[in-house]
Amino acid sequence: MSTGSLILVNGMESQCVPATDRGLAYGDGVFRTLLLRDGMPQHWERQYRKLAQDCAVLNLECPDAELLSIELQRFGERAPHLVAKIIVTRGSGERGYRYESGGSTNRILIAGPPPPDRERRSAEGVRVRRCRLKLAHQPALAGIKHLNRLENVVARSEWQDAQIGEGVLSDVEGWVIGGTMTNIFAVRDGALVTPALGECGVAGVTRERVLEAAQLHAVMCQVRKVSWGDLMAADELFLVNSVAGVWPVRQLEERTWPLGPISRSIQAWLDT
Amino acid sequence: MSTGSLILVNGMESQCVPATDRGLAYGDGVFRTLLLRDGMPQHWERQYRKLAQDCAVLNLECPDAELLSIELQRFGERAPHLVAKIIVTRGSGERGYRYESGGSTNRILIAGPPPPDRERRSAEGVRVRRCRLKLAHQPALAGIKHLNRLENVVARSEWQDAQIGEGVLSDVEGWVIGGTMTNIFAVRDGALVTPALGECGVAGVTRERVLEAAQLHAVMCQVRKVSWGDLMAADELFLVNSVAGVWPVRQLEERTWPLGPISRSIQAWLDT
């Protein structure tokens, strides 16, 4: 997406943002990544609700839903299937961490092609590794998708092997939190479990959709502390995010799994 | 510094950076803030060494020292006394946390006027508060001045009172780490103590200068875990950074101090 990307900065076609933007200076902002299908942002109501919630945590004014939706649809005129990223920052600022409450934000919308391996990984599953980096506990920022993502960058730099689709991260206490860019679910005896994210991690929109789909289909799902042992003892594992959808895990370190029926069901439930 | 700032992006006068810059996307970069006096970057060798060290931790290619120094001096042609900020990011990237090692970085240099209260606070000291936010432990990123500074932003948003010059932060275990934008020193019985920063915080250049000055003048200085009790029992407290210099603390919550002799000595040693 570096050159020739479709980019809208505050509604104007532009390749650049102010050098004094606080998103650059401090990571002072939030973002969303989502699919555009046939020109329409997928699960838009949910995506916007999460964006607004994350903005609220940082005391950022969230751009209007209608405005964002119209701007996203402008991308749709260029290509029917795209991945769009919405960044909301606290705008340009004087030097220093201090900000004026209620100041105007900058919104940056970037669209690019969907990742080429998306469908294949949904169909065939992925190989996954365990990351060395341990996520820090910061309850004041946990769960929100803010622009301070160096932990994810460092964790993703731990491997170069293109056969490995994702890395699983634990926190400083050793509890499993999720992938570098995905949330994780384990299946055991027909029930789901996914990590509680009160101390770190990002509580994604697709994680929320899985939790709701499970409830709707009377599949038990616990949100709790998850150990490495829970993963290793699982009948199935799968990873989710708004772009990938559901990726069954076929291998995590030495342990392997066949494609599992629950992962398939979740894929089907989320596709409808 | 928002409008009409002096800004050089990769050596070119520009007000903007690419919207796909990883500094904006993930806070994937580092920065320095320093004084230009009579057009010359102060303590440049030290500043550059720290910049290069921080880049190395993130596996970023550090721009050439000579190049940066020349660009900083271009600011000096506009005004003799300025505050300059150097941001180095991992450049523009495709979507996703992954990066190619050895990729080209973006360097963004921004200059603005020195803060108006700088001299007064050095002379008269500052009033300081205790922040509620607790800094997370992340040894992989501790000590370096990276662009993930949301904790500082959140901490700085805890107060609006312009009479309060700084807030003191503790970590998740309750140990004192420093101010939102400063390092902290306590004086007790003629000896200095400053927090160890292996788990969080930024190990600033002026902190390093104080440690060396203390050694040179045979003042004992310990780098160790510092408790709130250590601060309250101190004969003097002072805060340091490269722009502020040395600020004696006159009040921290309910406790007050007169201007102390050691703080004055440190100011004098650093001024020479």
Can you give a write-up of this model?
2 copies of one chain form a homodimer. Chain A is 27% helix and 32% strand. By secondary structure, the first copy, chain A, is α+β, with helices and mostly antiparallel strands. In chain A, strands 8, 9, 10, 11, 12, 13, 14, 15 and 16 form a 9-stranded mixed β-sheet that branches. Chain A is globular, with a radius of gyration of 19 Å. Chain A starts with 5 loop residues before the first strand and ends with a helix.
Lay out the secondary structure:
The structure is a homodimer of 272-residue chains.
Chain A: E1 6-9, E2 12-13, E3 16-18, H1 22-26, E4 29-37, E5 40-41, H2 44-57, H3 65-76, E6 82-89, E7 106-112, H4 118-124, E8 126-135, H5 150-156, E9 164-171, E10 176-179, E11 183-188, E12 191-195, H6 205-216, E13 221-224, H7 228-232, E14 236-241, E15 245-252, E16 255-256, H8 261-271
Parallel strand pairs in A: 8-9, 8-15, 12-13
Antiparallel strand pairs in A: 1-2, 1-7, 4-5, 4-6, 6-7, 9-10, 11-12, 11-14, 14-15, 15-16
The shape of chain A, in one word, is globular
Distance between the termini of chain A: 29 Å
The overall average pLDDT of chain A, rounded, is: 95
Count of helical regions of chain A: 8
**Beta-strand content of chain A:** 25-35%
